[in-house]
Design a protein that fits this description.
13 helices, about 280 residues
């Protein structure tokens, strides 16, 4: 009799455990459904906005706008300026990321905060700041004039704007890559006599190539899409400082259809490095 009661108690516990697991599974399923629902909403939200540009354009319109001389000039200026800015960003950003990855303390946190300021500055504020620094009446106007330079509304101004917005993205990505390297590797290299140059070029950079390329691609795309600061500091001179993003704005003032087609061209150009980033570098 006593054994039967114990058996019934055990069976009851087992049933309650099964019910509890079933309830937990139902809760998990609801969570999964909610997560997937938000993901699908997010995907549709972004896709439909971008798709609206493609629906308002056609292949014929895109070909026509690509053949336009101003478009070809803006593509040439965009690519050449991004190339120059990318080289400068690498030259400045690599040593900076290397130092910041190995230093701790409040001073370096403040330095890091200053470097990240361009990320949160409104583009018009960034353009105004650049104008006040390097403009004809800027803080460094006398020094710049002494070298016989006139920076605002020139190709050099375009490079400065792009480097200004590229540096935070590139250095943050590369710094994360440097910080992920095992300290044992660094210590082993130092035991065999590696100095700072060997550590940077033979250890840190080769082991952080994905972070390097990811940061560079994202920074280049950010700079190519820059508009507000470019307009304020570099202007929108065809064949000189007009990029694809500023050309779209000018076209939208007189021909909305052509500006939409040029926006489609810009998105298609941006898709190529993004596909490389997602399908190759993140594998």
């Amino acid at each position: 009799m006593a054994n039967d009661l114990i058996y019934q108690d055990m069976q009851g516990c087992s049933e309650r455990a099964d019910i509890f697991k079933l309830k937990e599974r139902k809760k998990l399923d609801l969570t999964e459904i909610l997560i997937w629902g938000i993901m699908i909403f997010n995907l549709l939200f972004i896709s439909l906005i971008i798709l609206s540009l493609f629906l308002k354009s056609s292949i014929g319109d895109v070909i026509t706008v690509i053949k336009d001389l101003n478009t070809l000039r803006s593509i040439k200026i965009t690519i050449s300026s991004i190339f120059c800015s990318g080289v400068m960003t690498i030259f400045i950003g690599v040593p900076f990321a290397y130092v910041m990855a190995q230093r701790r303390g409040k001073v370096y946190r403040i330095i890091n905060m200053i470097l990240n300021l361009p990320l949160v500055m409104p583009p018009t504020v960034a353009g105004l700041a650049l104008l006040m620094a390097f403009g004809r009446r800027g803080a460094f106007a006398n020094v710049i004039r002494a070298f016989g330079l006139d920076i605002p509304f020139s190709f050099v101004a375009l490079i400065i704007v792009q480097v200004f917005v590229m540096l935070p993205l590139f250095t943050q990505a590369l710094r994360s890559g440097f910080e992920a390297i095992d300290q044992d590797i660094k210590e082993a290299a130092m035991v065999f006599g590696a100095g700072e140059k060997e550590l940077l070029f033979l250890i840190y950079l080769p082991l952080s190539i994905r972070a390097f390329m990811t940061g560079l691609i994202m920074a280049c795309l950010r700079a190519a899409g820059e508009f507000g600061a470019t307009m304020m500091f570099a202007g929108n001179l065809s064949g000189k400082t007009q990029t694809l993003s500023t050309a779209i704005y000018i076209l939208s003032q007189r021909d909305l259809g052509q500006s939409i087609s040029l926006a489609v061209v810009l998105i298609l150009i941006f898709l190529i490095p993004l596909l490389v980033l997602e399908l190759k570098l993140k594998e």
